[in-house]
Structure of Glutathione S-transferase family protein:
Amino acid sequence: MENKMLTIYGCPNSRSLRAVWALEEAGAEYDYVFVDLFKGAGRAPEFLTINPGGKVPALRLDDDSIITETGAIALWAAEHYPTADLLPADPTERAQAWRWLCFGLTELDQPLWTIAKHRFALPEKRRVPAIEDTARWEFEKAAALLAARLDDTPWLAGEHFSIADIIASHCLAWAKSAKLSLEGSTLPAYLERCLARPAAQRALAREAAAKGKAQ
C-alpha cells in the first residue's frame, strides 16, 4: 500500500507539521495544499467540506476519504508504511509508543492549546487571560514527566524513534515559540535531536515552500 499519492492540507506554524513530518518519515508521496488559517481560509466553504472543524491538518487518501487529527494521521502513516518503523515491532516498545503518543496529545498539547486559544484563537470576548498561569503549570508538570522518561531512554518508545516522538517534540517546539521554558538539559537536547532528523527538515522545508508558492 506504499507510494500512494496523497494530499495533505496544512499551514505552517500549526499542527500540520506533525502530519507532514510523519509522511516524510514514512517516505510517502503527497501533494501539499496550503490553507492560510491566518487569513481565514480554514473557514472558507470549500475547506469546510474537507474538514467541517475548519482546522488543519487534513489528509485526503486516494479514495477521497479524509482523515483529520494529527494522532490519527500519524498512526495511519505508521500502519500503511510499515517499513519506516514508525511503530516499533517489539510489543513492549510498541505499547510505549502508544502510551506516549496519547500522553503527547492529551497532557502536552492540551495546555499549549489552552494558552493559544486564550491569547489569540478564541473570539476576544471568550478569552480568559488569567487561565494562562494554570495552563503553564499543567504543561510544566507534563514536561517533567516527559523529561523523566527521556532520562531513561533515548526515545519515548525505547531504543527506536516513533510517531510518539513526532508529537512530543512538536509540542516542545510549540512551547518554545510560546515563550514557555524547558527546564534542564534533557528536553532541549531531545528537541534538537528530533528536529535534526532529515524527515523533520524536509517537512519544515515542504511547508515553507508551499506557503511561498501560494503568496
The mean pLDDT is 95.
